[in-house]
């Protein structure tokens, strides 16, 4: 499988007494969305925050699925001489981390999954990506104009602003940092999860963190593949639990890794 060399940020000091922590972000996000969390965790951990393929500063590739993402993470660990790591993944990154753990359990010390389960969901990204592709980049004057243009299709302002982090101004012209055609073609892979009939359950330590206002995770969805997993629900948080309840999120991560 062809891998790409992932862009990354590294924080904290290397510690021979414990494995590093690798953070994997969600769809349309990048390492920058996890910088504040990573900075706090770097006080006690050596932290790598990766840009997944087709995201952030990482290379683009027409293949985007969880086996490919897991292969990228494995190649990253090998390139940086990381024998084992703690993996923390949110949403898409959580599915990539789960697939990595199921296929390379010997390379994972602790697995932390934020508000996602190893299942295929029923929603679609097609309308969202179509709306982003409709943005008139040639005539766009500023980000506020982009926010207003997308308001009908994407009513939630904070989500529009999150997505528009992928809009960059280069020499006076706006363009997308991500390849929306690739995202459209591979969106079903992100919603889905690979066939697990040939993999054995992950027998290592795992913590699933779910938002109390989210419906992405249930104990029944994780117990078969992750029989030793613990599920903690963070109240007053939705899918973006690390943003909405950062203190409690960090507390639970610290307790688990300790």
What does it look like?
There is one protein chain. The chain is 34% helix and 18% strand. The chain starts with 7 loop residues before the first strand and ends with a helix. The chain has 258 residues and is α/β, with parallel strands linked by helices.
Based on the model shown, name its key terms:
258 residues; two-stranded antiparallel sheet; Rossmann fold; alpha/beta; 18% strand
Summarize the structure in short:
This protein has helices spanning 35-41, 66-79, 92-103, 126-133, 143-149, 157-163, 180-191, 219-222, 241-244, 246-257; strands spanning 8-11, 21-24, 47-50, 85-90, 108-114, 167-170, 173-176, 205-211, 229-234. The chain is of the alpha/beta class.
Number of discrete helical segments: 10
- Strand-pairing-aware structural class: alpha/beta
Question: Oligomeric form of this entry?
Answer: single chain
The CATH homologous superfamily of the largest domain is called Alpha/Beta hydrolase fold, catalytic domain
Note the overall shape.
globular
Beta strand % = 15-25%
Q: Provide the CATH top-level class of the largest domain.
A: Alpha Beta
- What is the level-2 CATH architecture name of the largest domain? 3-Layer(aba) Sandwich
Gyration radius, rounded: 18 Å
Mean pLDDT: 96
- Can you summarize the main beta sheet? 7 strands, mixed
Share in helix: 25-40%
Order of helices and strands: EEHEHEHEHHHEEHEHEHH
Provide the number of structural domains.
2
Terminal CA distance reads: 35 Å
Q: Which stretches of 5+ consecutive residues score pLDDT under 50?
A: none
């Amino acid at each position: 499988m062809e891998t790409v060399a992932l862009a990354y940020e590294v924080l904290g000091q290397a510690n021979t007494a414990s494995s590093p922590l690798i953070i994997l972000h969600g769809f349309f996000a990048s390492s920058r969305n996890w910088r504040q969390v990573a900075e706090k965790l770097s006080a006690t951990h050596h932290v790598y925050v990766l840009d997944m393929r087709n995201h952030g500063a990482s290379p683009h590739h027409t293949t985007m699925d969880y086996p490919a993402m897991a292969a990228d993470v494995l190649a990253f660990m090998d390139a940086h001489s990381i024998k084992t790591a703690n993996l923390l993944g949110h949403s898409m990154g959580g599915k990539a981390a789960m697939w990595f753990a199921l296929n390379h359990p010997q390379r994972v010390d602790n697995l932390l999954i934020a508000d996602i389960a190893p299942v295929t969901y029923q929603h679609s990204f097609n309308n969202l990506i179509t709306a982003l592709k409709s943005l008139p980049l040639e005539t766009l004057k500023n980000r506020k104009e982009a926010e207003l243009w997308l308001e009908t299709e994407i009513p939630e302002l904070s989500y529009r602003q999150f997505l528009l982090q992928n809009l960059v101004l280069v020499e006076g012209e706006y363009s997308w940092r991500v390849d929306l055609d690739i995202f459209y073609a591979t969106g079903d892979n992100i919603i889905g999860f690979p066939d697990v009939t040939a993999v054995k359950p992950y027998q290592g330590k795992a913590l699933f963190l779910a938002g109390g206002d989210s419906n992405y995770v249930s104990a029944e969805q994780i117990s078969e593949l992750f029989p030793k997993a613990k599920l903690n629900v963070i109240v007053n948080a939705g899918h973006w639990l690390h943003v909405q309840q950062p203190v409690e999120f960090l507390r639970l991560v610290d307790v688990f890794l300790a």
